[in-house]
UniProtKB/TrEMBL annotation:
Keywords: ATP-binding, Nucleotide-binding, Transport. Belongs to the ABC transporter superfamily. This is ABC-2 type transport system ATP-binding protein. It comes from Bosea psychrotolerans. Gene3D superfamilies: P-loop containing nucleotide triphosphate hydrolases (3.40.50.300).
Length: 308
């Protein structure tokens, strides 16, 4: 199937001379939830802003549902809803009028029933006649989402939708995003909350210093890069790993009180049985043990660190 968004060799150099995107290629599949991860300043907002037509690319091409975002801007933009990172709203308008206005901007005919539903989904219905400046920060963020949904976009960008919102709103947002996906909307989100990507995304892209360094199915990423660790709490601390155990990937932690064995989850054998036998032979006793698996966060941190 043709991707719903295809970005080809996209570069952006800001007037300051700063090169924020360097030859980015990216395809977004129809109907997926794609999480774009990257440290501050990596180029996430720049990339989203170009796709949404708010920033001009320096070179390269972007197609949104087949429409070129430069030469066929209106058609491309009509497909897209954007929840921006920065809170920018018309302070003196009411919730109701600002959301209806957003719909009108895309040349869509008025549809009060639809706007009512969007406001209800976002628990904003009670606030419909309130001026935006009277809302709390989290409610303002909900208004931004309502505005982005008002013209029924097929593609929704959420640039850090849950930065600084409470747990309840975050969970509401996740529910909302899943509901949109069920209705066929493609969702691209950026986030600094790795657990959000872990929870929501079908695929994950990592961007660092203006370059996409990885795009992968979430499940595959976790499987490929996931390492498991077995931690043994020793009865007696060790000064060093005994030479007889040199063939294992072992590290001493907690001042010699813990022996940590790292193994590959894909490998046919974990080596745990042999390790435990060898430990016993070497007269090393332990009082407790547990295993842990590297999280997406560990994977992400090591990917980005390796590029520094
Ligand atoms: N208008 C601009 N003029 C010059 N440089 C800019 C401009 N906008 C962004 N940049 C620079 O481009 C780089 C990428 O910024 P961008 O906002 O895309 O990062 P980001 O990945 O969204 O970061 P964050 O996680 O902090 O939101 C940064 O170094 C930023 O300073
Ligand atoms: Mg940003």
């Amino acid at each position: 199937m043709q991707p719903i968004i295809s970005v080809t060799n996209l570069s952006k150099t800001y007037k300051s001379g700063f090169s924020a995107l360097k030859g980015v290629d990216l395809s977004i599949r129809r109907g997926e939830i794609f999480a774009l991860l990257g440290p501050n300043g990596a180029g996430k907002t720049t990339l989203i802003s170009i796709i949404c037509g708010l920033v001009n690319p320096s070179s390269g091409q972007v197609l949104a549902d087949g429409h070129d975002i430069v030469t066929d801007y209106r058609a491309a933009r009509a497909k897209i809803g954007l929840v921006p990172q920065e809170l920018t709203t018309d302070a003196f308008e009411t919730v109701w009028s600002t959301v209806n206005f957003s719909r009108g901007l895309f040349g869509k005919r008025r549809d009060p029933a639809l706007v009512e539903q969007v406001l209800k989904d976002l628990t904003l219905w009670d606030k419909r006649d309130t001026q935006i400046r009277m809302l709390s920060g989290g409610m303002k963020r909900r208004v931004l989402i309502a505005k982005a949904l008002a013209h029924e976009p097929q593609i929704l960008f959420l640039d850090e939708p849950t930065a600084g919102v409470d747990v309840e709103l975050r969970q509401d947002m996740w529910k909302l995003v899943r509901g949109l996906q069920e209705r066929g909307v493609t969702i691209i989100l950026t986030t600094h909350y790795i657990e959000e990507a872990e929870e929501m995304a079908d695929r994950i892209g990592v961007i660092s210093k203006g370059e996409i360094i990885l795009v992968e199915e979430k499940a595959e990423l976790m499987r490929k890069l996931g390492r498991k660790q077995l931690t043994l709490s020793l009865q007696e601390p060790l000064a060093s790993v005994p030479p007889v155990l040199a063939s294992y990937d072992l590290a001493l932690e907690a001042e010699g009180n813990e022996l940590v064995y790292t193994y590959d989850t894909k490998a046919e054998r974990t080596g745990i049985t042999a390790l435990l036998q060898d430990l016993s032979q070497a007269n090393i006793r332990f009082k407790d043990l547990h295993t842990s698996q590297s999280s997406l966060e560990d994977i992400f941190v090591s990917l980005v660190r390796d590029r520094r």
